[in-house]
Amino acid sequence: MEINLLKDKPDLIPKIAKWYSDEWGYIDDGSGKESRSTTALEIKLAEYLNSDTIPLMLVATKNQSLIAAAQLRFQENSRYPSDSHWLGGVYVCESHRGNGAGQALIEAIVTKAKQLNVQQLYLQTEDLSGGLYKKMGWKAVEEVKYCGIDLLIMQRDLIT
Q1: How far is it, in rounded angstroms, from Cα 63 to Cα 149?
Q2: Which of 49, 59, 89, 154 has the fewest CB atoms lying closer than 10 Å?
Q3: Strand partners for 157
Q4: Counting beta carbons within 10 angstroms of the beta carbon of residue 16, is it exposed (0 to 12), middle (13 to 18) or buried (19 or more)?
């Protein structure tokens, strides 16, 4: 498995946008726009073509095929400050789930966040048990209902 910046593999944007639209396209963000359509997501993902500034995205490939993606971004949940840092958009294609790709990608995001002097990362998950994130040392902060979905907000301190 190889992990790269989306900036170095921009041709993967359409595939990631389709994943995101298929997985989370039903979520109503209240804007009245189709903000989670594949086309809208392709436009949004172009903002992640960065290497040393946030937002950015990492992608995992195996044998030249995209298998996972994750974002380092600002404010994924409007209940938190606009300058808060978030791990978001973590997606592993179904055929590669359970083989460590997600965990490796999450740790790569944490490493990149540390390089950018991020002191604390948040995430939100629909898995109210915390799942993999809990196993990786993320701590539960609160359960919230956001965009009509029950979510667990988790946090990880990056200062050692």
Answers
A1: 36
A2: 49
A3: 120
A4: buried
Q: Assess contact for 158 and 113: CB atoms under 8 A.
A: yes
Token code pair at residue 17: 């946008």
Map out the domains of the chain with their CATH numbers. 2-118 (3.40.630.30)
Q: Are 158 and 112 spatial neighbours (Cβ–Cβ below 8 Å)?
A: no
- Nearest CA-CA partner of 132 in 85, 92, 73, 78: 92
pTM: 0.89
- The Cα-based distances of 109 to 3, 13, 81, 88, 125 in angstroms read 10, 18, 20, 10, 16
